[in-house]
Amino acid sequence: MSEANYYRASANPHPAYPALSGARTADVCIVGAGFTGLSAALDLAQAGYLVIVLEAERVGYGASGRNGGQICTGFTNSMARLEKRLGAENAKRAWEIAKDAVDLIGRRVADHTIDCGLTWGYLHVADKPRQMAELAHNRDEAARYGYDGLQLLDKEALRDRLDAPGYHGGLWEPRAGHFHPLNYCLGLADAAVAAGVEIFEQSRVLSVDTGAEPSAKTASGQVRAQHMILAGNAYLQDTVPQLYRRLMPVGSYILATEPLGENRAQGLIRENDAVCDVNFIVNYFRRSEDDRLLFGGRATYSGRDPQDLFGFMRPRMLAVFPQLEDVALEYCWGGYIGITVDRMPDIGRLGPSTLYAQGFSGQGVALSGMCGRLLAEAVRGQAERFDVLSNLDHPPFPGGPLRTPALVLAMLYYRLRDAL
Hints:
FAD/NAD(P)-binding domain, 17 strands, alpha/beta, eight-stranded mixed sheet, 35% helix, globular
């Protein structure tokens, strides 16, 4: 995946952590130093557990340091569909978990003074007239769960907030938002280390034992623990085959323009909202703290990067903002997100003492950190909220070795549906 990453170029100063060497023991071994793993590590260390985190590359190397920085409420699935699977009472509990996921980010930033440009305000936009009914339904569904304050905007009202004439209206959400995701992740790492967590970078886990006495082996060491948490998501790859069969890594891409200047950047998105459309394959964008446009909107399902990422992404941006034809692009990067068949997070247990969370399916900025908290609660014997999501069954992707070309064909269908 491309390393021309704006977030890396604008990251806060941060330490490098050593690689694991030799045999170590801990109360909890966590694989993966992203939002999920670091959130769990911080909570557990604050509760008095000895925690070791193993990271294959650097803190925030995976989706946590590459994503669009958009803090969304809820799940990729509708609540109506979730009610059919969980029942009304557990669906309500799931909604509260998702809402708390957004609130948790705000509390982490405040409690640990994390400098990440956290900004509230979110626009869900419709690029087809028929999608306005979908936005109205989403507003009404949220209100049923006690989540009010969402405002439906017609085309004229939307133009007061967003200079993108192709959209027919929007839904403004005051309690969702955006931030610099890598700086948030680095701030979580700082807080975890201050609480007593040991982080080892460049320590790729080659094998795990998920039995009664879990352990993780790297090329130069091993950690044995009473509990283990697997938090690598798509970057865990096939280290644990039974998890990999239920997860599809999907390439996602973002570009960053040159600095536009305050006036021009504000002219595009006047109230500094995060913005996302409601297509199956979405466009999403926002302003950066230094007045760039950050724009994401394409995905690949083949496991291969496009040869020319700038050429791959630029037409999508210009379709939304044709007035940026003269603007240079300075960064364009990609990374993997993990999706499940049913587009719901896959959280559960492997063996008596190993837990995992993966497959946030495009909603991971908030949900991944919250799932880290649920994993920490379960380690501590408080599994009520963990059980709400772990009771969801997640089938493997069909097709076995042919699952990738099958998904490519499926996504082609959805691209055509969006276009029509």
